[in-house]
Specification:
mainly alpha; 4 helices; 0% strand
Amino acid sequence: MTIRNNKEFGEVVRIARQKQKLRQVDLARKASVRQALISEIENGAISAKLDTVIKILAALDMDLSIVPRKKAEFDPTEY
């Protein structure tokens, strides 16, 4: 899945958490973060530090991959 903003990242986290039948508090404990932070991320309301993103993804048994964009142009208003 391609993620290009906070909202899309939050949706991915929410879907993965729900598929694993985890509550926000369960994911927060696994990732060693606050439950409120999980909620904020899932709602796209916060920009998380990279180390926090990696912790959350690891707690969900997911990895972060960086790949070249498929479209050539860059529109900063999309972010």
